[in-house]
Amino acid sequence: MILATLERPMTTIKATVRKNGTPFPNVHVYFTITAGPGEFADYSTRFSTMTDSTGVASVVFYGPTKSELARDTTTTIQGQMQSNTPDFIYKTVEIRILRAAD
């Protein structure tokens, strides 16, 4: 949950890629805002990055300011790892965005 105020709220979204409990480094992970307001640090709604040595991929999400919202809302972000198989491996998270009082 983040609070939309006069400044853009931000939070870091992380995805951990493991196989049988072992971290997977250097895996391409795509983060996509599938619904709701906000953007990533590069002003896009889709961002790709690689997992680090511990199997973690991260992206910074910036929510809207309170002037951009009429009421509380939710943004949905999907994290999906690149795969050479026909399997569609992803995780979806919802971020509740509360509009600060005037």
Task: Write a structural description.
With 102 residues, the protein is mainly β. The chain has one domain: Uncharacterised protein PF12988, DUF3872 (Immunoglobulin-like). The chain is built from no helices and ten strands. The protein has strands at 2-4, 10-16, 18-19, 22-23, 28-35, 39-40, 46-50, 56-62, 73-81, 90-99. The strands form three sheets. It has a five-stranded mixed β-sheet, with no helix packed on it. A three-stranded antiparallel β-sheet has the order 2-8-6, with no helix packed on it. The protein starts with a strand and ends with a strand. The model has no long low-confidence stretch (mean pLDDT 94).
Using brief descriptors, characterize the structure shown:
mainly beta, about 100 residues, five-stranded mixed beta sheet, about 55% strand, about 0% helix, three-stranded antiparallel beta sheet, Immunoglobulin-like
